[in-house]
Amino acid sequence: MGAGYRFVDQVVKTNNLHTVCEAARCPNIYECWDRRTATIMILGDVCTRACGFCSVKTGKPTWDDPLEPVRTALAVKKMDLRHVVITSVDRDDIKNDYGAEIWADTIRQVHHHASDCTVEVLTPDFKGSKPALLKVFAAEPDIFSHNLECVERISKQVRSQANWQRSLEVLKYSVKHGLQTKTGMMVGLGETTVEVLETMKQVVDTGVSIFTIGQYLQPTGGHLPVERYVSEQEFEEYKCRGLELGFLVVESGALVRSSYHADEQARLALAAV
Protein backbone atom coordinates (compact mmCIF):
# COMPACT_ATOMS: atom_id res chain seq x y z
CA MET A 1 0.00 0.00 0.00
CA GLY A 2 2.28 2.73 -1.31
CA ALA A 3 1.57 6.45 -1.56
CA GLY A 4 -0.17 6.08 -4.92
CA TYR A 5 -2.46 3.36 -3.59
CA ARG A 6 -3.40 5.41 -0.52
CA PHE A 7 -4.07 8.48 -2.64
CA VAL A 8 -6.42 6.65 -5.04
CA ASP A 9 -8.14 4.92 -2.12
CA GLN A 10 -8.75 8.28 -0.47
CA VAL A 11 -10.14 9.89 -3.63
CA VAL A 12 -12.45 6.94 -4.31
CA LYS A 13 -13.82 6.94 -0.76
CA THR A 14 -14.12 10.74 -0.50
CA ASN A 15 -16.14 10.88 -3.72
CA ASN A 16 -18.31 7.89 -2.70
CA LEU A 17 -17.37 5.94 -5.81
CA HIS A 18 -17.27 2.23 -6.53
CA THR A 19 -14.44 0.47 -8.34
CA VAL A 20 -14.43 -2.88 -10.10
CA CYS A 21 -10.93 -3.27 -8.68
CA GLU A 22 -12.47 -3.83 -5.25
CA ALA A 23 -15.82 -5.33 -6.24
CA ALA A 24 -14.30 -7.99 -8.52
CA ARG A 25 -11.35 -8.70 -6.18
CA CYS A 26 -8.80 -7.91 -8.86
CA PRO A 27 -5.33 -9.27 -8.06
CA ASN A 28 -3.68 -6.20 -9.60
CA ILE A 29 -5.30 -3.55 -7.37
CA TYR A 30 -2.12 -2.67 -5.47
CA GLU A 31 0.01 -2.32 -8.60
CA CYS A 32 -2.59 -0.32 -10.53
CA TRP A 33 -3.63 2.00 -7.70
CA ASP A 34 0.01 2.67 -6.89
CA ARG A 35 0.34 3.85 -10.53
CA ARG A 36 -2.72 6.05 -9.93
CA THR A 37 -4.96 4.08 -12.26
CA ALA A 38 -8.33 2.65 -11.30
CA THR A 39 -11.44 1.35 -13.04
CA ILE A 40 -14.43 3.30 -11.77
CA MET A 41 -17.71 1.39 -11.61
CA ILE A 42 -20.86 3.47 -12.18
CA LEU A 43 -24.59 2.80 -11.70
CA GLY A 44 -24.08 1.35 -8.22
CA ASP A 45 -22.45 -1.82 -6.96
CA VAL A 46 -25.32 -4.32 -7.33
CA CYS A 47 -25.61 -6.20 -10.63
CA THR A 48 -28.83 -7.62 -12.06
CA ARG A 49 -26.94 -10.61 -13.47
CA ALA A 50 -25.15 -13.43 -11.68
CA CYS A 51 -22.25 -14.53 -13.87
CA GLY A 52 -20.45 -17.67 -12.74
CA PHE A 53 -17.02 -16.02 -12.67
CA CYS A 54 -17.75 -12.62 -11.10
CA SER A 55 -17.76 -11.59 -7.45
CA VAL A 56 -19.63 -8.30 -7.91
CA LYS A 57 -22.78 -8.30 -5.75
CA THR A 58 -25.95 -9.43 -7.49
CA GLY A 59 -29.55 -8.63 -6.63
CA LYS A 60 -32.11 -5.85 -6.99
CA PRO A 61 -30.27 -2.51 -7.38
CA THR A 62 -31.38 0.49 -5.33
CA TRP A 63 -28.99 2.98 -6.95
CA ASP A 64 -30.37 6.51 -7.35
CA ASP A 65 -27.53 8.97 -7.75
CA PRO A 66 -27.94 11.50 -10.59
CA LEU A 67 -24.79 13.37 -9.48
CA GLU A 68 -22.56 10.32 -9.92
CA PRO A 69 -21.32 11.39 -13.41
CA VAL A 70 -20.10 14.74 -12.03
CA ARG A 71 -18.47 13.16 -8.97
CA THR A 72 -16.76 10.63 -11.21
CA ALA A 73 -15.38 13.38 -13.43
CA LEU A 74 -14.16 15.44 -10.48
CA ALA A 75 -12.41 12.39 -9.04
CA VAL A 76 -10.69 11.79 -12.39
CA LYS A 77 -9.57 15.43 -12.39
CA LYS A 78 -8.31 15.23 -8.80
CA MET A 79 -6.30 12.11 -9.60
CA ASP A 80 -4.85 13.94 -12.62
CA LEU A 81 -5.35 10.87 -14.80
CA ARG A 82 -4.21 10.71 -18.41
CA HIS A 83 -6.47 7.73 -19.06
CA VAL A 84 -9.50 6.46 -17.16
CA VAL A 85 -11.47 3.23 -17.53
CA ILE A 86 -15.16 3.42 -16.64
CA THR A 87 -17.27 0.30 -16.24
CA SER A 88 -20.58 -0.59 -14.62
CA VAL A 89 -22.74 -3.32 -13.26
CA ASP A 90 -25.44 -4.66 -15.59
CA ARG A 91 -28.67 -2.72 -15.11
CA ASP A 92 -31.29 -4.78 -16.92
CA ASP A 93 -33.85 -3.23 -14.55
CA ILE A 94 -33.58 0.20 -16.24
CA LYS A 95 -35.99 -0.62 -19.01
CA ASN A 96 -35.69 2.45 -21.22
CA ASP A 97 -31.94 2.21 -21.97
CA TYR A 98 -30.30 -0.07 -19.37
CA GLY A 99 -28.39 2.93 -17.96
CA ALA A 100 -26.92 4.18 -21.24
CA GLU A 101 -27.86 7.82 -20.54
CA ILE A 102 -25.86 7.76 -17.29
CA TRP A 103 -22.99 6.23 -19.23
CA ALA A 104 -23.13 9.02 -21.81
CA ASP A 105 -23.36 11.75 -19.17
CA THR A 106 -20.36 10.32 -17.32
CA ILE A 107 -18.24 10.35 -20.48
CA ARG A 108 -19.29 13.92 -21.27
CA GLN A 109 -18.53 15.09 -17.73
CA VAL A 110 -15.04 13.58 -17.81
CA HIS A 111 -14.38 15.21 -21.18
CA HIS A 112 -15.53 18.54 -19.70
CA HIS A 113 -13.73 18.47 -16.33
CA ALA A 114 -10.60 16.53 -17.36
CA SER A 115 -10.18 17.33 -21.03
CA ASP A 116 -6.62 15.96 -21.23
CA CYS A 117 -7.74 12.53 -20.02
CA THR A 118 -8.65 9.85 -22.56
CA VAL A 119 -11.77 7.86 -21.70
CA GLU A 120 -12.12 4.10 -22.09
CA VAL A 121 -15.50 2.54 -21.41
CA LEU A 122 -16.02 -1.12 -20.56
CA THR A 123 -19.75 -1.53 -20.99
CA PRO A 124 -22.42 -4.19 -20.54
CA ASP A 125 -24.21 -5.42 -23.66
CA PHE A 126 -27.30 -3.22 -23.04
CA LYS A 127 -29.18 -6.34 -24.19
CA GLY A 128 -28.00 -5.50 -27.70
CA SER A 129 -30.09 -2.30 -27.82
CA LYS A 130 -28.76 -0.17 -30.67
CA PRO A 131 -30.42 3.05 -29.38
CA ALA A 132 -28.69 2.50 -26.02
CA LEU A 133 -25.34 1.85 -27.68
CA LEU A 134 -25.75 4.94 -29.86
CA LYS A 135 -26.16 7.08 -26.73
CA VAL A 136 -22.77 5.87 -25.52
CA PHE A 137 -21.15 6.24 -28.94
CA ALA A 138 -22.45 9.81 -29.27
CA ALA A 139 -20.59 10.82 -26.11
CA GLU A 140 -17.36 9.97 -27.95
CA PRO A 141 -15.34 7.68 -25.69
CA ASP A 142 -11.77 7.29 -26.92
CA ILE A 143 -11.96 3.50 -26.59
CA PHE A 144 -15.09 1.35 -26.46
CA SER A 145 -14.70 -2.03 -24.77
CA HIS A 146 -17.07 -4.92 -24.20
CA ASN A 147 -15.84 -8.33 -23.09
CA LEU A 148 -16.71 -11.66 -24.66
CA GLU A 149 -15.28 -13.20 -21.46
CA CYS A 150 -14.81 -16.74 -22.85
CA VAL A 151 -15.11 -18.94 -25.91
CA GLU A 152 -18.63 -19.41 -27.28
CA ARG A 153 -19.08 -23.10 -26.39
CA ILE A 154 -18.95 -22.51 -22.62
CA SER A 155 -20.51 -19.06 -22.62
CA LYS A 156 -23.86 -20.08 -21.13
CA GLN A 157 -22.30 -21.62 -18.04
CA VAL A 158 -20.01 -18.61 -17.61
CA ARG A 159 -22.60 -15.88 -18.34
CA SER A 160 -26.04 -17.45 -18.08
CA GLN A 161 -27.94 -14.21 -18.79
CA ALA A 162 -25.75 -13.07 -21.67
CA ASN A 163 -25.45 -14.11 -25.29
CA TRP A 164 -22.06 -14.61 -26.92
CA GLN A 165 -23.17 -13.71 -30.45
CA ARG A 166 -24.95 -10.62 -29.11
CA SER A 167 -21.69 -9.51 -27.52
CA LEU A 168 -19.91 -10.04 -30.83
CA GLU A 169 -22.56 -7.88 -32.53
CA VAL A 170 -21.98 -5.12 -29.95
CA LEU A 171 -18.29 -5.10 -30.91
CA LYS A 172 -19.14 -5.03 -34.62
CA TYR A 173 -21.51 -2.10 -34.06
CA SER A 174 -18.79 -0.16 -32.26
CA VAL A 175 -16.30 -0.75 -35.07
CA LYS A 176 -18.95 0.25 -37.62
CA HIS A 177 -19.28 3.61 -35.86
CA GLY A 178 -15.55 4.26 -36.08
CA LEU A 179 -14.57 3.68 -32.45
CA GLN A 180 -11.32 2.11 -31.33
CA THR A 181 -12.74 -1.13 -30.01
CA LYS A 182 -11.45 -3.59 -27.43
CA THR A 183 -12.49 -6.91 -25.93
CA GLY A 184 -11.10 -9.48 -23.53
CA MET A 185 -11.50 -13.05 -22.40
CA MET A 186 -10.45 -15.49 -19.70
CA VAL A 187 -8.87 -18.90 -20.06
CA GLY A 188 -8.82 -21.80 -17.63
CA LEU A 189 -12.57 -22.38 -17.78
CA GLY A 190 -12.56 -25.53 -19.91
CA GLU A 191 -11.85 -24.12 -23.36
CA THR A 192 -9.32 -25.62 -25.78
CA THR A 193 -6.37 -23.86 -27.38
CA VAL A 194 -8.00 -24.27 -30.79
CA GLU A 195 -11.16 -22.56 -29.50
CA VAL A 196 -9.14 -19.64 -28.15
CA LEU A 197 -7.39 -19.14 -31.49
CA GLU A 198 -10.71 -19.41 -33.35
CA THR A 199 -12.19 -16.79 -31.03
CA MET A 200 -9.28 -14.46 -31.64
CA LYS A 201 -9.75 -14.86 -35.40
CA GLN A 202 -13.48 -14.11 -35.15
CA VAL A 203 -12.78 -11.02 -33.07
CA VAL A 204 -10.02 -9.57 -35.26
CA ASP A 205 -12.23 -10.08 -38.32
CA THR A 206 -14.78 -7.68 -36.78
CA GLY A 207 -12.18 -4.89 -36.71
CA VAL A 208 -11.49 -4.94 -32.97
CA SER A 209 -8.00 -3.55 -32.38
CA ILE A 210 -7.20 -4.35 -28.72
CA PHE A 211 -7.43 -7.82 -27.21
CA THR A 212 -6.74 -8.96 -23.64
CA ILE A 213 -6.49 -12.51 -22.35
CA GLY A 214 -5.84 -13.66 -18.79
CA GLN A 215 -6.16 -16.56 -16.36
CA TYR A 216 -9.53 -17.11 -14.69
CA LEU A 217 -9.17 -17.18 -10.91
CA GLN A 218 -12.05 -18.40 -8.73
CA PRO A 219 -13.05 -15.48 -6.47
CA THR A 220 -14.99 -17.61 -3.93
CA GLY A 221 -15.90 -21.25 -3.40
CA GLY A 222 -19.33 -20.53 -4.84
CA HIS A 223 -18.03 -19.52 -8.25
CA LEU A 224 -16.96 -21.62 -11.22
CA PRO A 225 -13.92 -23.80 -10.51
CA VAL A 226 -10.62 -23.31 -12.33
CA GLU A 227 -10.28 -26.09 -14.89
CA ARG A 228 -6.58 -25.50 -15.55
CA TYR A 229 -3.77 -23.01 -15.07
CA VAL A 230 -2.40 -21.79 -18.38
CA SER A 231 1.38 -21.58 -18.76
CA GLU A 232 3.21 -18.33 -19.43
CA GLN A 233 4.50 -19.91 -22.64
CA GLU A 234 0.93 -20.41 -23.86
CA PHE A 235 0.05 -16.81 -22.99
CA GLU A 236 3.08 -15.65 -24.96
CA GLU A 237 1.96 -17.76 -27.92
CA TYR A 238 -1.50 -16.14 -27.77
CA LYS A 239 0.14 -12.72 -27.85
CA CYS A 240 2.31 -13.57 -30.85
CA ARG A 241 -0.57 -15.16 -32.69
CA GLY A 242 -2.86 -12.23 -31.97
CA LEU A 243 -0.39 -9.74 -33.37
CA GLU A 244 0.06 -11.94 -36.45
CA LEU A 245 -3.71 -12.00 -36.92
CA GLY A 246 -3.78 -8.20 -36.98
CA PHE A 247 -4.61 -6.84 -33.53
CA LEU A 248 -2.84 -3.55 -32.81
CA VAL A 249 -2.39 -4.47 -29.13
CA VAL A 250 -2.53 -7.84 -27.36
CA GLU A 251 -2.18 -7.98 -23.56
CA SER A 252 -1.70 -11.63 -22.58
CA GLY A 253 -0.66 -13.09 -19.24
CA ALA A 254 -1.86 -14.88 -16.14
CA LEU A 255 -2.86 -11.75 -14.19
CA VAL A 256 -4.05 -9.75 -17.19
CA ARG A 257 -7.52 -8.28 -16.76
CA SER A 258 -9.36 -6.09 -19.27
CA SER A 259 -8.18 -2.86 -17.66
CA TYR A 260 -4.63 -3.99 -16.86
CA HIS A 261 -2.15 -1.50 -18.36
CA ALA A 262 -5.11 0.08 -20.18
CA ASP A 263 -3.33 3.44 -20.28
CA GLU A 264 -0.42 1.93 -22.21
CA GLN A 265 -2.76 0.03 -24.55
CA ALA A 266 -4.66 3.24 -25.26
CA ARG A 267 -1.52 5.18 -26.16
CA LEU A 268 -0.44 2.47 -28.60
CA ALA A 269 -3.86 2.07 -30.21
CA LEU A 270 -4.74 5.75 -30.44
CA ALA A 271 -1.31 6.59 -31.87
CA ALA A 272 -2.04 4.19 -34.72
CA VAL A 273 -5.22 6.02 -35.75
UniProtKB/TrEMBL annotation:
Q: EC no.?
A: 2.8.1.8
**Which enzyme class?**
transferase
Give all residue intervals belonging to the Radical SAM core domain. 33-248
What are the coiled-coil residue ranges?
none
The cofactors required by this protein are: [4Fe-4S] cluster
Keywords in UniProt for this one?
4Fe-4S, Iron, Iron-sulfur, Metal-binding, S-adenosyl-L-methionine, Transferase
* GO terms assigned for molecular function: 4 iron, 4 sulfur cluster binding; lipoate synthase activity; metal ion binding
The UniProt catalytic activity note for this protein reads: [[Fe-S] cluster scaffold protein carrying a second [4Fe-4S](2+) cluster] + N(6)-octanoyl-L-lysyl-[protein] + 2 oxidized [2Fe-2S]-[ferredoxin] + 2 S-adenosyl-L-methionine + 4 H(+) = [[Fe-S] cluster scaffold protein] + N(6)-[(R)-dihydrolipoyl]-L-lysyl-[protein] + 4 Fe(3+) + 2 hydrogen sulfide + 2 5'-deoxyadenosine + 2 L-methionine + 2 reduced [2Fe-2S]-[ferredoxin]
Q: What Pfam families does this protein's entry cite? A: Radical_SAM
Query: PROSITE patterns per the record?
Result: RADICAL_SAM
Entry-linked NCBIfam families: lipA, PRK05481.1, PRK12928.1
This chain's protein is named lipoyl synthase
